[in-house]
Amino acid sequence: MKKGYHIPLGYTEKEIVKIGEELLGSGIYQAIEIKYPYGMAGFNPESYLKGINELKSQFSPEITMHIPTNLDIGHTNPFIWNAILDEIKKSIDFAEEYDASVLAIHPGTIGTMDIPAPDGSKIKDALIQAGQKKKEHARYLTVQALEIIASYIDGMPAVLALENVLLSQEIVYSPEELDFIINEVNRPNVKALFDCGHAFRCGIHPAEFLKQLKAGIAHVHVNDNDGTCDLHQSIGEGKIDYAPMFEVLKEKGYKGIILMETSYRNSQSLAEDAEKLDRYIGS
To answer: Is residue 44 predicted with pLDDT exceeding 80?
Structure first.
């Protein structure tokens, strides 16, 4: 397994290069996950682009890209849905310039809706049922979108990796839900992205999630939390037990990238995470 780290859009060329020199230059990490730096009001991508271009030129890391999470492939307005797909295609064209091996993507959502906990009342039961219908529609739209994107990247080396998520308006919490959508799409270039922090936040032990997941795994995001919020902490700062999770990954024969997706501000915390990863996966 290779070790990688993500590069948030807020990082400047100087920060990106300095951290890269310390982590990629030393061989501590071998991969990076970049973001699509366009389509955001008020953001100038120039410094970010210079930074990731310098890393690509100097160190030739394996590169993956996260498709923007604000592009909701479950959007019910057909005009907006098609515009979202057009923007996703632009992000994929950008990723192709970097020979990205994995394209991480979130499933669709139902937008915003206040879904109550059940208490036996008719009005709340009706709202819960309405929320479920919306989720069924978002799943349908997600499958349609993934089929279109899979066709778009057909012939490219990149794999589309669908991520398990965690918020109430999202549609993929469990391994069964992730398997369902991947099976419905049924394309060899669409696989699973396993995020251990998301699973833990949903109350599912990461090792148990992996045991139940039947789909092929193309990518793994690692971060820690306390089970109450997706905190993106470094390994050991939260409550996740990683040893059994990595044992299951080994049993499944996972050979891809272990991508640290934490809220780091310098190379030290990522270097410490790499040392901890080595205890689980071997250096």
So the answer is: yes
Q: Which residues pair with 5 in a beta bridge?
A: 32, 260
- Match 């690509």 to its residue by tokens: 56
- Is 157 in a helix, a strand, or coil? coil
The CATH number that applies at residue 155 is: 3.20.20.150
When divided into structural domains, the chain yields a total of 1
Per residue in 219-262, pLDDT (tens digit) is 999 999 999 999 999 999 999 999 999 999 999 999 999 999 99
pLDDT-derived band at 20 (thresholds 50, 70, 90) equals very high
Domain that holds residue 70: 2-281
What's the token pair of residue 202? Answer: 């949903």
Q: String of b and e for 45-66 (b: at least 16 CB within 10 Å)?
A: eeebbebbeebbeebebbbbbb
First to last CA, the chain: 9
